[in-house]
Amino acid sequence: MSTYSFLIRRVLQALAVVLLVTVVVFCLLHALPGGPARGILGPQATASQIAAFNHEQGLDKPLPVQYLYFLNQLVHGDLGMSYTLNEPVSQLITERLPKTLLLTVLSAVIGLLFAVPLGVWQAVRRNKPADYVITTLSFIAYSTPVYFLGLILVLVFSQVLPWFPAQAPQGNSVADILAQPQGLVLPVVAGAATMVAVFSRYMRSATLENLTEDYVRTARAGGTRPRAILTRHVFRNSLTPVVAMLGYYVPVLFGGALVVEQLFNYPGMGLLFWTAAQSSDYPVLLGCVLVISIATVTGTLLADILQRVIDPRVKAGRS
Amino acid sequence: MSSLASLDGLESKPAPAVSGTRLAVRRFLRNRLAVVGLGVVVFFVLFCFVGPLVYETDQTHTLLQQVNQSPSGAHWLGTDAVGHDELGRLMYGGKVSLIVGLSAGVLATVIGTLWGAAAGYAGGWIDAVMMRVVDAGIAIPALFILLVVSAITTPDLTGLVLILGLISWLVPSRLVRAETLTLKNRDFVLTLRAIGGGHGRAIVRHILPNSVSTVIVAATFQIADAILLVAYVSYLGLGVQPPSTDWGGMLSTGMTAAYSGYWWLIVPPGLAIILVVWAFNAIGDGLRDAFDVRGRA
Amino acid sequence: MSAVRRPAAPVAGEHILDLDDLGVEFTTETGTVRAVRGVSLHVAPGETLALVGESGSGKSTVALAAMGLLSGNARATGRAVVDGTDIVGADEERLSGLRGSTVSMVFQEPATALDPLSRVGKQIAEVIRNHRRISAADAAERAVELLRRVGIPEPEQRARSYPFQLSGGQRQRVVIAMAIANEPALLIADEPTTALDVTVQAEILDLLRRLAAETGTGVLLVTHNMGVVADFADRVAVMYQGALVETGSVEDVLLRPSHDYTKRLLSAVPRLSVAEADGPGERPAPEPDAAAAGEPAVELKDVSVVFGRGKHAVHALKGVSFAVHPGETLGLVGESGSGKSTASRVALGLIGPTAGSVTLFGADLAATRARARRALRAGIGVVLQDPVASLDPRMTVGECVAEPLRVHRRRLSRREREALVADVLDRVRLPREMARRAPRELSGGQRQRVSLARALVLEPRLLVADEPTSALDVSVQEAVLEVIRELQEELGFACLFVSHDLAVVQQFARRVVVMRAGRAEEQGLTSATLLHPETDYTRRLLAAVPVPDPVVQRGRRAERLATLAAGRTEEQG
């Protein structure tokens, strides 16, 4: 399969998924009792006020019509106006998405930098005390709710030991935020912890599996030393399935960002989403979910492409 | 005929007759972390369901004369902002966390199993469409959905289980689909199909019984995830209503108090969540190795 | 030249490999297993010793022990001296220095023996650089040279290929290139051709023989295939249940075996009957085909099968026709990818033909309704290749055998069903008590007989057997084939027998279809087609089969090589 036809097929699949997401989100929002109007105007609103609001927002039309209307706007980059912030949703999102991407990419990269060597090391020391300790620690990290972990981090590294600020850097641009790196430490650690736990486990089992492969025996029979077998052969072969898992992990990363941003008051999409949920700001909720889904699907796509780059078999259409 | 008998002895004998289940049990028991995990789960079940009978506390009335007391002989883990005994509350809240987590985990596994088995067995375009739906579901982070739901409604316990089950069936559905795909092409299923056996028989007599271990392992991990998700629920504003509570609820209401130094309001529920989720993960890990099935790492 | 290069080994005398009272134990979940006991043997420079035995005899364990490649749960005792160094107890650093330079190994499974993510040239160069201080560029050049030596066309391009881009035979050549990269004094080959088609097997054996002769390398050849032994070995050592039972020259062991086990083993090996060597010979006049008069049990007419669409379409079958008549066995032979398994699955109705028609018991499958088709299928019995995958591990043997009854004769009471199961277990010569056992407690041969019992419980008119014995040892194979043959005489079913093994088909089938690349290359009575084939392809196929008689095989090899050389000159001319 050529690279082009692969890309076209994958992009079409991704579009189908995004379209399905819009349906899910749209249905979710219209399943609510009283509709969006009740949420905005409050419980005191009269029936006529609600009717007027619904008419103004096009909410009195049949659902499929509303959905098509919504899709049409979407194609033109129009996600509607925020009910509460009085700004176009698209503008709110363009302003905040880069900051959330910064947080998630930073967490992911740092998480992987720890997880991958840790997993390999565990595999090499399989069933030795070090392996048990790290296994236990990664299960604990996996089992800790991110908000609890964040709270502990703040209590320890900001209250007891005044090393890092408890509040994330504020600012309108990515550059502003990067200018205050010490404020990023705790949010990134909180975001990366689960990642380290999950991916060190993946890497451990992938490495263990590869260590039993025939090609390892062939390399040993050729006189290649154990360390070289690990670095030249096993490592690359183990990384391939882990990269594939990266794609599935993107939604978890964004979920983590939602909590981390709220906890550290980080001015990204997660926080925007959070405040929108508190004030029933449906256009913002809808826009955020949509953008996050597109980001997830894109992330999965990137992981697929990365996998093609490092594994020649995938490129050739067999695996 | 004599040649047959004599040649039979030449073949190497198969493994001694240890039943598959017994072998799996033996393997599981050798995994120390898994056994500890099992112990932790048993402990917490007793703690939450039998504990309140032994250690009786008032968890309904506000007791203003004893708010935010630190741990003492009378209240081993202190009291909270409305004067409830924290140890008693841990039992009381744990009951909700465990029930909701278990039910949601099992529900998610059931939905995932049915969906995945159907997609895998049907194959072709039905499979493609069904799996695109799963892709779409996975593309929306669960916490985002929960937050949207919290903006819309405050569900009761049953509603909560339904919501949690409905957003976390996607991963088990993928696992079961993969399992079904391999099983339906196994020789014993092909043989049955060739002699005219029906789809029903193939599914009920072969595919389902042989996916049981995969499903059990998936369910264990799913329960761990569900209990963790329940802990997020109150934090996201979907929690059970006071005076009822769960560990997650205790944790999120205790968070503000933590800055005032009332550590006993967050450490016990936090540890309880971590321990139980850890335990189910360790059990899942042990079961996966014992059954020798594929599952998540 | 390597014989000269090596210093005289002080301990082992003239031997490059010396095993002295070697034992190997494995610690497993179910206890300790003694896989190898008191094995003593030697390999001299330039000679080939074949270590033969059936599965579980411990022959591969001996090979791995000699490389120091035993798995972590194994413990070796005794001595295994390679070129003066005792492998048992040597540390990893010492072993790494020996492996790939003094002693090297060729493995069974070329599909998995190479790192899938590294280019093959690089993998060969790695072995060179493990033992010699030369630049990467020089090593790469050497790798290309080695690929040329093992007969890979366009070695410069192929060196840049990944393993998956090569065929199985080519991959095995790459593994061999790695093994000879540093001109080892000893080459250990563990079933080097078992996973390959017979024509490829012949080529690989020729290659190994040439390389060993060129460099005076001693070879330890581990194999279960007596034909390969006859073709390649100077001396033979026979293993049975972890111990050596007989050692001697290849002529002595294969033609005049002294140990009982060796005798029984050799008598169980199916032998390809070959036509008198001189001339094409007269094709015997086709004997009157009595069975053909009746209605065939199954008939494929001009069947084509295409998998996939457009550019990726795979034409698995192209216009294949054959019929199986009641009471007769039709053999379907061919190499991997020839379409023989696809053809059997079409006959079973598991794969629908893209074009052409399938007639089962006189009814066109495409034209029958689902219900009628189901009834027709009650007349089919199936035995597939894999003894492990054929039986549901969650059922007892009795339940497995009773399954066809539950599908087609639902009215039977439990007692009637059990009686029929006991009856059919008797027929395949398994004890009735076995009905209560789990398949995993049975040996491979017993499992295949359970599959056969299940296939026969409805007294079918057609038995489809797809490589039913290729996963079994020869002695067990003989027993299973014997049962099928006796029951066929008794019950008179038609049998479609798929196999890659020409010798088995020759003994077992009355008529044969030779498949090649999705087509029926040639078909006819076995006695005619496999003795005096009409097509070049069948002739080449037959010539590539090694026979377990070293004298005959030597002649066959010379003849085959002469034919090949003649073909080459013709092409050039």
Automatic annotation (TrEMBL), chain B:
InterPro entries membership: BP-dependent_transpt_permease, MetI-like, MetI-like_sf, OppC_N
- What are the record's GO terms for cellular component? plasma membrane
Q: Which PROSITE patterns did the record assign?
A: ABC_TM1
Q: What does the entry give for GO biological process?
A: transmembrane transport
Q: Which residues cross the membrane?
A: 33-55, 96-121, 133-152, 158-176, 215-241, 261-280
Under PANTHER family, the record lists: D,D-DIPEPTIDE TRANSPORT SYSTEM PERMEASE PROTEIN DDPC-RELATED, OLIGOPEPTIDE TRANSPORT SYSTEM PERMEASE PROTEIN APPC
Q: Kindly provide the name given to this protein in its UniProt entry.
A: ABC transporter permease
Source organism of this protein record: Streptomyces coelicoflavus
The upper taxonomy is: Bacteria, Bacillati, Actinomycetota, Actinomycetes, Kitasatosporales
